[in-house]
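Quarterly update from the structural biology core.
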Amino acid sequence: MAENSSCCTPEGSCHSGGTDVQVGEVTTTYRVTGMTCGHCEGAVRSEIGELAGVSSVRAVAATGLVTVTSKAPLDEDAVRAAVDEAGYELVGRAA
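Predicted structure, tokenized:
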């Protein structure tokens, strides 16, 4: 068996999370307030998903975290405007 033939790192951790990240893509996590349910998540996903270059959006109401994968870094003002359009508030990038 060839070395590094699996998705796991030599330390034993595996790529997970359900979203395959393509080389050259940027993943950024934002904190959004006001989401309380699946409908909220869908509204945020829909608005952010319309931004140019966005390939995936995952919103979790329980944590208030929205993870966005895009071809290049996004302008935070554009993300803020999309979240505002959905009816929620972008606090900023998650630490």
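The chain is about 25% helix and 25% strand.
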